[in-house]
Amino acid sequence: MSDQVRISGIVAESITDGPGFRYAVFVQGCSHNCPGCQNPQTHDPCGGELRSVEDMVAEIGRDPMLSGVTLSGGEPFEQAGALLPLARAVRDMGLELAAYTGDLYEDLLRDTGDRRALLELCDVLIDGPFILEQRNLDIRFKGSENQRIIDVPASLRAGAVVLKEDGRWIAGSDPFAPGMRERV
Ligand code: SF4
């Protein structure tokens, strides 16, 4: 496997990028330019470093504590093609795959290429740009009120957006949840 993804960083056991321990991949490159973005260092598509999918998959496979993998950024869907082998491997391992995006679910769904393919591999999508005026530190796993935590398989089946009702993702009983976080 020689696929590579340009990343700004990895947190091998994150507790702030989804419920439980998450292998969080912060993808490098984002063209959304949301005012107030907390991660401007991730915007340059030529910044960061290249990391092999093979290495990431091996790292994930060695950690029995992981409940899922989260693609964040940056904008993961600007490297959708490069992320497909990683996404497929995560699903093959039986782990939950979540992705953040500054795009909307509906726009990714209209895509006929790699962005749509990556969307279809996700269990959870947190969509929409960070909107400074709607910033809310009291909501878990989101930075601003406009963002939605979407159940992707249910949405694909229904032909309409279905929000995640799983208590692990919304305010609830996750023992690893940090409570509130700032999320962009
Ligand atoms: S908030 Fe996210 S989508 Fe918006 S500019 Fe920053 S990294 Fe990109």
Explain the overall architecture.
The chain is an alpha/beta fold and 184 residues long. The chain has one domain: TIM Barrel (Alpha-Beta Barrel), CATH 3.20.20.70. 23% of the residues lie in helices and 23% in strands. A hairpin with a 6-residue loop joins strand 1 and strand 2. The C terminus is likely disordered. The protein binds iron/sulfur cluster. The site of iron/sulfur cluster has 14 residues, from loops.
CATH topology: TIM Barrel
Largest sheet: 7 strands, mixed
N-end to C-end Cα span: 31 Å
| CATH superfamily heading | Aldolase class I
Name the poorly predicted regions.
172-184
Task: Report helical residue fraction.
Answer: 10-25%
In what order do the strands lie side by side in the largest sheet?
A: 3-1-2-4-5-6-7
Category from helices, strands and their pairing: alpha/beta
Ions and ligands: iron/sulfur cluster
CATH classification class = Alpha Beta
Could you list some keywords that capture this structure?
TIM Barrel; 184 residues; seven-stranded mixed β-sheet; binds iron/sulfur cluster; disordered C terminus; alpha/beta
What is shown here, in short?
The protein has 184 residues and is of the alpha/beta class.
Helix-strand layout with pairing:
Elements: E1 4-14, E2 21-27, E3 49-52, H1 53-61, E4 66-72, H2 80-92, E5 96-100, H3 105-110, H4 114-121, E6 124-127, E7 148-151, H5 152-158
Parallel strand pairs: 2-4, 4-5, 5-6
Antiparallel strand pairs: 1-2, 1-3, 6-7
Helix pairs in contact: 1-2, 2-4
